[in-house]
């Protein structure tokens, strides 16, 4: 459903009526980013009391910087009735701007920022023998189910290979 919302967002961006107000759009963007940072800082302050491995300030910054895409906000804004909410188009324009800022600006800069701050990334671990046996067992089981059903999916071709 998230994909459908973003497709609808793209269509609405190109075809929809927009009401641009620089002050409202800029304030919305700034307040959304501030609220995101305060939310992350507050919640990590609480959760760090119960964690064995604490989230560092660098981790908290990356969490705050990497979030906030806005598909739900767009959906809710789109559902507003123009008769009861005459500034609906201005809200949608601000929401679309926040979404595009977070997707394009923050999305394109998150990887260099993670590298610059040297944030520790999850290490890929080698699977244990138990995990390997269970994975192979499930692959063969699904291949058998596909053979019984007469459906030849990727498990069938993987087993044949």
From TrEMBL:
One of its GO terms (molecular function) is sodium:proton antiporter activity. One of its GO terms (cellular component) is plasma membrane. GO terms for biological process: regulation of intracellular pH; sodium ion import across plasma membrane. InterPro entries: Cation/H_exchanger_CPA1, Cation/H_exchanger_TM, NHE-1-like. The keyword Transmembrane helix applies. It is a multi-pass membrane protein. Residues 3-115 form the Cation/H+ exchanger transmembrane domain. Its main location: membrane. Pfam families: Na_H_Exchanger (PF00999). It is found in: Membrane. Keywords: Ion transport, Membrane, Sodium, Sodium transport, Transmembrane, Transmembrane helix, Transport. It comes from the Eukaryota. The keyword Membrane applies. The chain crosses the membrane at residues 20-50, 62-80, 92-118. Signal peptide: none annotated. This is Cation/H+ exchanger transmembrane domain-containing protein. The lineage of its organism: Eukaryota, Metazoa, Chordata, Craniata, Vertebrata.
């Amino acid at each position: 459903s998230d994909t459908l919302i973003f497709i609808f967002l793209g269509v609405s961006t190109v075809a929809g009526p927009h009401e641009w107000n620089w002050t409202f759009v800029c304030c919305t963007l700034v307040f959304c980013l501030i609220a995101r940072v305060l939310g992350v800082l507050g919640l990590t302050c609480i959760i760090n009391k119960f964690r064995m491995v604490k989230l560092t300030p660098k981790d908290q910054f990356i969490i705050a910087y990497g979030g906030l895409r806005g598909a739900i906000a767009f959906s809710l804004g789109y559902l507003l009735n123009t008769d009861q909410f005459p500034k609906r188009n201005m809200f949608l324009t601000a929401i679309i701007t926040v979404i595009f800022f977070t997707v394009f600006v923050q999305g394109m800069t998150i990887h260099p920022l993670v590298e610059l701050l040297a944030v520790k990334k999850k290490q890929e671990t080698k699977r244990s023998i138990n995990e390997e046996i269970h994975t192979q067992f499930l692959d063969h089981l699904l291949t058998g189910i596909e053979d019984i059903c007469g459906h030849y999916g990727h498990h069938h071709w993987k087993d044949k290979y």
